[in-house]
Design brief:
By secondary structure, the chain is mainly β. 5% of the residues lie in helices and 37% in strands. It has 2 domains: 3-111, Immunoglobulin-like; 122-158, no CATH class.
């Protein structure tokens, strides 16, 4: 699952695990796992080099590392895939992470302290004409009726308030 990032905002992200190819179990610890091999794919565009590929060990010797993504790395809305290729000194599996870059208003609404904007323009598939005391005013009556047998039970939207009885 992609982690959300705020558009055009620098972030340090935990990536990994970095595991040796030789046994598929041993964690790779060290500060020089990658030397210039970080790349980004922004919203299905072509791969580009990451603007920053600085690593620090995340948990004091374990398989996870922290990478600094610059504001330029997260400037495009949509899916962002980060990957790195190991330097020749390390024989490790390739590592990648998926992120979803969202606009600042959406990010702040979910993860910030500001209120969530909730304007109602359509209610129950009908345009809202006005609001009364914070409640949308809609003149719609929903009724159940039976279509011909081959079409099954369905829902009809009617603004006339006409009741169509169920029949077998």
């Amino acid at each position: 699952m992609a982690r959300w990032l705020r558009q055009s905002t620098q972030v340090c992200a935990c990536v990994g695990p970095f595991i040796k190819v030789s046994d598929g179990i041993t964690a790779v610890a060290g500060a020089d796992v990658v030397s210039g091999g970080c790349r980004l794919k922004k919203n299905n565009a072509n791969w580009v080099p990451a603007k920053s590929d600085v690593f620090t060990n995340e948990d004091g010797g374990g398989p996870f590392f922290e990478v600094a993504l610059s504001a330029g790395d997260v400037d495009t809305l949509g899916l962002l895939r980060w990957t790195c290729y190991p330097s020749a000194a390390f024989s490790i599996f390739q590592v990648w992470e998926d992120f979803m870059v969202v606009d600042p208003v959406t990010y702040d609404a979910y993860f910030g302290t500001g209120p969530i904007r909730a304007d109602v323009n359509v209610w129950n598939h009908t345009s809202v004409a006005s609001h009364a005391a914070g409640v949308p005013v809609v003149d719609v009556a929903a009724r159940w009726y039976r279509r011909p047998r081959h079409q099954g039970l369905s829902r009809s939207m009617s603004s006339t308030g006409t009741t169509v009885p169920l029949s077998g």
